[in-house]
Structure formats: C-alpha cells, structure tokens
Amino acid sequence: MTGVRIRSGRKALVGRCRVPGDKSIAHRALLLGALAEGTTLVHPFPGGADVRATLEAIRTLGVEATWEQEVVRVRGAGLSWAPPRPVRIDCANSGTTMRLGAGVLAGQPQPVTLDGDASLRRRPMERVAVPLRAMGARVETASGYPPLQVAGGRLRAVDWTLSVASAQVKSAVLLAGLRAEGTTRVREPLPTRDHTERLLAWMGVPVTRHADGAALSGGQGLHGADIPLPGDPSSAAFLVVAALLVPGSTLVLQDIGLNPTRTGALAILTRMGASIRVENAREVAGEPWGDIEVRAGALSATAIGAAEVPAAIDELPVLTVAAAFADGETRISGAAELRVKESDRLAGLEQLRGLGVPIETSGDGLVIGGCRDRMLSPGRVWTGGDHRMAMAFAVAGLRTPGGLELDDAQCVDVSFPGFFRLLEELGAVVEPV
Question: Which of 84, 298, 330, 408 supports an S-S bond with 323, CB 3.0-4.6 Å?
C-alpha cells in the first residue's frame, strides 16, 4: 500500500506486544562486530531499511555477515581490517550508517564513498568530517553534504568538544579512536545516547565516562559477543502515546530498552500526567530493559527545553501530537535539529493547524495549544517520506473521526516494519487509500 487512512474507532487499544529491536544498538553492533575478533550475534534483528543499510555496508566492505530469521551473524575482521579496493556504499536513508561508517573507515587507507538517497543528501555532514580530519583522516564532502569520500591511515587521538549534541558524531569520533594513537576524548554540551560506550565495554574495550563525555585508548581489540536487542524505545513511544489518547486503552510493551539517555519521552509524558509504569526491570548485555504498562488518561501541557531534547529527539513529533490533546499550552524549544532530520519535522508538524490544532513554529521549536477533548478534522497530510512523521500522524489519526490520510505508509519500514498491522491488531481502524 502507498497511503492509509486512520480513524478513531469504538475500540480501545488493548493487549501485550513487542516492537522491533533497537535500531540504534543494531547499527553499532554490526559495525563493532565487523571490527571485532571472532563472531558477533545480533538479535532479534529489527529488519528495517536503516539497519539493512548498515548490514549491506559491512558486506560491501568485505565483512562476512549472514541474516537468518531474526539473527545476524557477523564474522569480525579485526581492527587491522581494510577493504581490499575502493568501494562505494549506498547508505539509503540512514544518517547513522553514513556518520558512524565514516568513523569506522577513517583509519584505513582505501578511499570509500558513502552516498545515499535524496533525503540523506540534504543532511549536513561537516559536523562529522571536521573532527575526523583533525584526527588525520581525509574526508571530502559535497559542499558540506553527501556524498562523503573517506580515506585515512595513521590517526592521532583528539580531545574534541562537540558544538552540537550529537550521538552520531560522538560515536564516529570514538570509533575512529579505536585505531588512533593515544586517548581520544569527546566532550558534549548535553548528554546524548550512550549505546556506543556501553557496547564498546561489552565487547572488551574500556571506556572512561565523564560528566561531559567519554574517552578511550586506541589500539585495543574488540571481542565478538552475543548482543540481544531490547525493543526500540523510540518505536515504543508511538504506541505509548496512542494508548494514552484512545479512551479505555491499556497496553503492555514487553522487553523495551530503558537506557536513561533514551527515556526522555517517557519522563516528559509522566510529567504531563501519563499513567506509565515500568515492570520487570533488568539489565541485559550492558543495557537496562523492562516492560512498560500504559493506560489512557488526561494529559496536561508542559515545557520541553533544550536540555531535554537529546534524550527525546526522535520522539518529539509524537510528543507534539500528545500536546495537541493535553490541556493548556505546550512549548518546545532548543529543537533546531528537527529541521535537518529525514525531513524538516518542524515544518511538517505545522500541518496540525489544518486539522484544527493551534500551533506555531519557530526556528527551533513549537507552541501547541492543547485540549483534552479535542477531535481532529479529517484531512490528508504529507509525511515527507519520514518514518517518524508518518507514525506521529498515524497516532493523531486515532483522534480523527472522519479519518486522517497519510500519503506514504511504506516509509515506516525504515524503523518499524509492521507498524500499521500492529495498530490494527490492537484495535485501531486502518484502511488503504
């Protein structure tokens, strides 16, 4: 199907379910597995287009990686590995593949070109190229944008301060630091997701954690490992908000990743009055896991500032939808990064105005006038081919009696294959158009 219509029905969303494995961890597990000695198992592999891009990238570079059922098996090539010849890698729509891949490739001599689709070619890449050049790599961009050509060799460690909080840039520098002489340190203005640091430690490379970042010493070998993936908390957030907004709903999301650098959306929703409870909390492969129980209920407006944005960056579109049904005025600021995601997400969210939501955008944020009893006007929205925008508007459709049409349903396969089917199983009304 190309487009879908989602509308409010008489059914509450009820049940227990799982979401795809965490794609942020999956990207990193594949890349670190390629650099490790021995075999790395990554499971359950989420299978979305983004992580498939990273899987194909390491295969293109000559690393043996097989995918059977839900398990990817990577036979590591070690830190001394380099592709045998110049190659070109298609990163598709995955900025993580491109930026982290550049860090992996910075320490090897062969020129490798990293390219992607039209959307990825609009995303800024100098922020990762600059620190890698400072380490001694040769990185060329097209006026600051993809494609990137990366070739390296002998790298030197750096003490680098990020100008913008970015887990992808931090990770790229740390990955390059594995092959650098000396200790590489990355300082960040705000805490960002730390899956790279946790995985490095799980695979045998100690990482020194500081209040403002992380550091590691170069030349340490990685060991292949078994890496089970929790459910992706960013994917789970769309179902959490859906359950909050549909009266009578009760959902239990099982085996969700609860890394504190990824649970910002849950903290914000709880502050807004959401009934969210964590059960069966535990640690698996260096990451906190748990089950999330969420019940429908009234929400109140809040303010989301720059300090909270990094831990909720992927969930801000659906938090904006939640704010439309929360009593009062919600303000989001310090979120300029949404302008340079798979689409300009701030501009895309302005479409809520045409559905009856008072909303204003600025260069780095939004002001949303909310009402708990609001029902949206029927309409059609443009997703920009952006998976998170499509899922956020799908949630909005659950409060649209006349139905909300999305122009592109297939783009959700980037991160959440089967999203619309799961919504139907839980009680939503989803119709192809």
Answer: 330
Considering 232, 255, 314, 386, which one is annotated as catalytic? 314
Residue 407 annotated to the active site: no
Identify the CATH number of the domain in which residue 57 sits.
3.65.10.10
Domain range holding 171? Answer: 23-228
> Do residues 319 and 176 share a domain?
no
Q: Is 120 exposed, middle or buried (0-12, 13-18, 19+ CB in 10 A)?
A: buried
Alpha-carbon torsion (191, 197, 199, 202), positive or negative: negative
Give the model's pLDDT for residue 329: 98
Determine contact, residues 372/326, Cβ cutoff 8 Å: yes
Domain identity same for 358 and 387: yes
pLDDT band, residue 393 (cuts 50/70/90): very high
Phi, psi of 400 (to 5 degrees): -125, 95
Query: For residue 133, what are its two tokens?
Result: 């050049």
Same domain, 246 and 347: yes
The stretches of 8-84 forming alpha helices (DSSP H) are 23-35, 49-60
With a pLDDT cut of 70, the percent of the chain lying above it is 100
Q: Which residues contact 289 (CB under 8 A, 6 or more apart)?
A: 230, 255, 256, 257, 258, 280, 281, 282, 283
Six token digits for residue 415: 């991160």
Question: What is the chain's alpha carbon radius of gyration, rounded to the nearest angstrom?
Answer: 21
Domain boundary among 182, 197, 228: 228
pLDDT at residue 1 is higher than 70: no
Tokens of 92: 């598709």
Check: pTM over 0.85? Answer yes or no: yes
Boundary-marking domain end, from 228, 262, 282: 228
Residue 408 is encoded by which pair of tokens?
């592109």
Q: What is the pLDDT of residues 277-288, one digit of tens each?
A: 999 999 999 999
Could you tell me if 141 and 285 lie in one domain? Answer: no
User: What total number of domains does the chain contain?
Assistant: 2
Give yes or no: residues 318 and 386 share one domain. yes
351 touches 381 (CB < 8 A) = yes
